Amino acid sequence: MSIAGVRRAVRESVSGLPREFWWLWTSTLVNRLGAFVATFMALYLTLERGYSASYAGLVAALHGLGGVVSSLGGGVMADRLGRRPTLLIAQTSTALSVALLGFMHHPVAIAAVAFLVGMTSNASRPAVQAMMADIVRPEDRVRAFALNYWAINLGFAISAAAAGLIAEYSYLAGFLGEAALTLTCAVVVFAKLPESRPQRGTDAAGAHEPETRLGTVLRDGRYMGVVCLSFLISLVFMQGSVGLPVAMGLAGFSPSDYGLVIAVNGVLIVALQIPVTRFIEHRDPQQLLVLSALLAGYGFGLTAFAGSLGVYALTVCVWTLAEIINSPTQMGLVVRLSPVHGRGRYQGMYTMSWSVAALVAPLMAGYTIDRFGAGWLWGSCAAIGTVAAAGYWLLMRGLREPRTESGAKAPADSAPAPAPADA
């Protein structure tokens, strides 16, 4: 492709999205540039503080548990308080708790603040996803979610490299740096992003639309099916960071070998997310989700036959392609099944599926490898991927095209009305 062709492709990929989306995208990128705690927490506790690996694992689990707790809470806040207040509260609280964590020394204090960091940092995710659905037209949402996912991975790739250099100088500087960048996100939200929560209207009979509650989400069978399938896919994808390094270590490979292999994941996402999204944007989501589940399951399943770095890297290529396809497509499905005035709660339930998987995946990997061997773990991934693919196929049969955002006659690209101040 010529330079002019590349420029045209990039222009088509980013054109037509509202200005508010790009400020939200910028906030996401800045936030991920400061991902120090998620990257180096275990090394900080074991090397800098001298704690055991078991204690480091406990702290990581508490951090994840905080995310599970706040997933639903953040979703409820996004619906009741609004997207913008939720983001401001979550990001400011995250900045303060991350800075505080850098000064903690007692093991109980570290564990408690780590739980707080996990809770505050995860609370913003339902609000970000709900706001993105509010401000982007339905036909552009897959592309918007893909661009946001691209920003997450680009920011994390840069932060991982920078955090390594910062850690050699001072771990405290890393904590304070993440706090400063998270606070910058709050400033961006405060200065540039208006509230996007749609105004609650009335139905055809003139009655106020019923409020969406958590019980409403739980009773939505098709949507809870998506949540369960998201949990299964998350269990598979997370083996790249919990099962793969352990299996490679048992096979005689060094940490640097694992670093080279897993770097393929980030490089491919940054390089391919936008062009692949342009290819899949208007294709059948049922077929895309079935394909991504099979690629994820059998991509990890092929790891059982890996004996060299090249083969390990090849398996990473397979499941990374699944990740690139699955993330924006599934997010589009989540928004499609969510009622306009309940997006926060629906997004919170979806976020919780990933948070719970983050707790279960390490236990699954450790137990399976210790009791049966790594080959059984990779075989289990293939089986889970197959079950998820069948689930997506069954779940999406007969799923009709969504109505307009208002549920009536309003055009799809109409701007959401601001929420009333007393809502």
Coarse morphology? globular
Percent helix, as a range, is over 70%
The total domain count is 2
| Number of distinct beta strands | 0
The computed structural class is mainly alpha
CATH topology of the largest domain: Growth Hormone, Chain: A
The named CATH superfamily of the largest domain: MFS general substrate transporter like domains
What's the story with the biggest beta sheet?
none
The CATH architecture of the largest domain would be Up-down Bundle
Radius of gyration: 21 Å
Share in β-strands: under 5%
Mean pLDDT: 83
State the helix count.
Answer: 17
Order of helices and strands: HHHHHHHHHHHHHHHHH
The first-level CATH class name of the largest domain = Mainly Alpha
Low-confidence parts: 202-207, 403-423
What is the rounded distance between the termini? Answer: 52 Å
Notes on the protein architecture:
- By secondary structure, the protein is mainly alpha-helical.
- It has two domains: 20-197, Growth Hormone, Chain: A (Up-down Bundle), CATH 1.20.1250.20; 214-398, Growth Hormone, Chain: A, CATH 1.20.1250.
- The chain contains 17 helices and no strands.
- It has helices spanning 3-14, 19-33, 36-48, 53-80, 83-101, 107-122, 124-135, 141-169, 171-192, 214-219, 221-237, 243-250, 255-280, 285-301, 309-337, 343-371, 374-395.
- Helix 2 (19-33) runs antiparallel to helix 9 (171-192) and helix 8 runs antiparallel to helix 9.
- The longest helix is centred in the middle third of the chain and has 29 residues, at 141-169.
- It is globular and about 55 Å long.
- The model is unreliable at 202-207 and 403-423 (pLDDT under 50).
